[in-house]
């Protein structure tokens, strides 16, 4: 038995307590876990150039991450997404994926997936597929090498494309996430759509969210997706479709390519009514809503006892406080982020 699976209680379906239901009768079935706040890139909308990262001693160990995720699975979570920071730069990440994959085998978990910048995918794609990961999200905002370097501050787009190639070769289904950035990639959306659909990948556009101080003015970056959609409609015939992935994206089909385009609009469209998700940071803080400050410290609960009962109780108490929704605004007068924490802390 390796380190990550030692001391972890075996999932027992018979012991599964009732699923987590929040005060607005939404079942919480989707957990996003930030496994590290670190990243090998510094996207301008996500991080400042001189980020100070958490000391390693603050992070949950791989065993603790497994125990926490498994507690949520026992409490009815059916979909688990590993994110960050960049999840594939966390040392030992495949040990965690390997140990969590037992929940896929047992049927307790429907899906284990990751959101990644793809720089490390060449190395990990085959193993991810072998461990039961089927679909992954790759973030890519431009195909232009110079623009990519400018957005990520030093990234190499060829490494990302190579990572996507490797993932598709390994049989992983890839969805592209593109943040719409005014004056940066807004001339490129039709090209990105054609490129993604040409490779059999869905593409989802995301509005930039006011999270964390990044040393730049977000008003300069913000581009409402209504404008992105209007621009795409000049090139493609967009048909409304019913397709949902359990996430907040609304999809249309481009008739010319046959592929799907998603839109995630946290600022201009409120998608909170159907929210089924919560997020855990790499320090074990549970955020019930991406757009609110309220949180629960699960690390101290985890470390205080070997029994999972206090953990279940803490999770239930936190879900009972899940707010109805968020209220993001880009504060035009003060030009401040609506929330001080970065996306890389909460996990995108
Ligand atoms: N490093 C991985 C990646 O880039 O895919 C996973 C973590 S990243 C924080 C997850 C997603 O959040 C990415 O698609 C990224 O583009 C998005 N993101 C980061 N900061 C954002 C912001 N301020 N507004 C909107 N999306 C953001
Ligand atoms: Fe890193 Fe992802 Fe944030 Fe870019 S968006 S800096 S790749 S965590």
Draw up the topology in text.
Layout: E1 30-34, H1 62-74, E2 79-83, H2 93-100, H3 102-106, E3 111-116, H4 121-130, E4 135-139, H5 145-152, H6 157-169, E5 173-180, H7 189-198, E6 202-207, H8 218-221, H9 225-235, E7 238-240, E8 250-254, E9 260-264, E10 277-280, E11 285-287, E12 295-297, H10 298-304, H11 309-319, H12 343-346
Parallel strand pairs: 1-2, 1-10, 2-3, 3-4, 4-5, 5-6, 6-9
Antiparallel strand pairs: 7-8, 8-9, 10-11, 11-12
Helix pairs in contact: 1-2, 4-6
What does this structure look like?
By secondary structure, the protein is an alpha/beta fold. The chain contains twelve helices and twelve strands. Strand 5 (173-180), helix 7 (189-198) and strand 6 (202-207) form a beta-alpha-beta unit. The longest helix is centred in the N-terminal third of the chain and has 13 residues, at 62-74. It is globular and about 55 Å long. Residues 1-14 and 330-336 have low confidence and may be disordered. It binds S-adenosylmethionine and iron/sulfur cluster.
Question: How would you summarize what this structure contains?
Answer:
The chain is of the alpha/beta class and 348 residues long. It has twelve helices and twelve strands. Iron/sulfur cluster binds next to loops.
Q: How confident is the prediction overall: mean pLDDT?
A: 88
Give start-end ranges of low-pLDDT stretches.
Answer: 1-14, 330-336
Strand % is: 15-25%
CA distance, first residue to last residue: 32 Å
Strand count, sense and barrel status of the largest sheet are: 12 strands, mixed
Secondary-structure element series: EHEHHEHEHHEHEHHEEEEEEHHH
Helical element count? 12
């Amino acid at each position: 038995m390796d380190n990550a699976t030692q001391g972890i209680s075996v999932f027992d379906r018979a012991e599964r307590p009732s699923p987590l239901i929040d005060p607005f009768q939404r079942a919480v079935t989707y957990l996003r876990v930030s496994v590290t706040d670190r990243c090998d890139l510094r996207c301008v909308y996500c991080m400042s150039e001189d980020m100070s990262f958490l000391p390693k001693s603050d992070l949950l160990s791989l065993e603790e991450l497994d125990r926490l995720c498994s507690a949520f699975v026992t409490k009815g979570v059916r979909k688990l997404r590993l994110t960050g920071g960049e999840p594939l730069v966390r040392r030992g990440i495949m040990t965690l994926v390997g140990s969590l994959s037992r929940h896929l085998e047992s049927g307790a978990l429907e899906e284990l997936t990751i959101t990644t910048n793809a720089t490390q995918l060449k190395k990990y794609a085959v193993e991810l597929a072998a461990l039961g990961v089927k679909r992954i999200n790759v973030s890519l905002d431009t195909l232009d090498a110079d623009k990519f370097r400018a957005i990520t501050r030093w990234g190499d787009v060829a490494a990302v494309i190579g990572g996507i190639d490797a993932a598709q070769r390994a049989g992983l289904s890839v969805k592209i996430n593109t943040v719409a950035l005014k004056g940066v990639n807004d001339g490129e959306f039709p090209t990105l759509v054609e490129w993604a659909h040409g490779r059999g990948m869905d593409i989802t556009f995301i509005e930039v969210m006011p999270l964390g101080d990044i040393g730049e003015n977000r008003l300069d970056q913000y581009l409402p997706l209504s404008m992105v959609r209007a621009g795409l409609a000049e090139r493609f015939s967009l048909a409304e479709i019913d397709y949902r992935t359990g996430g907040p994206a609304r999809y249309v089909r481009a008739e010319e390519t046959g592929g799907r385009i998603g839109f995630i609009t946290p600022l201009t469209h409120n998608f909170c009514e159907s929210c089924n998700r919560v997020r855990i940071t790499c320090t074990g803080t549970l955020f019930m809503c991406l757009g609110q400050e309220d949180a629960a410290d699960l690390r101290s609960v985890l470390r205080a006892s070997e029994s999972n009962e206090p953990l279940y109780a803490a999770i239930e108490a936190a879900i009972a406080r899940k707010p109805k929704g968020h209220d993001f605004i880009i504060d035009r007068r003060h030009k401040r982020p609506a929330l001080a924490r970065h996306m890389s802390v909460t996990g995108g």
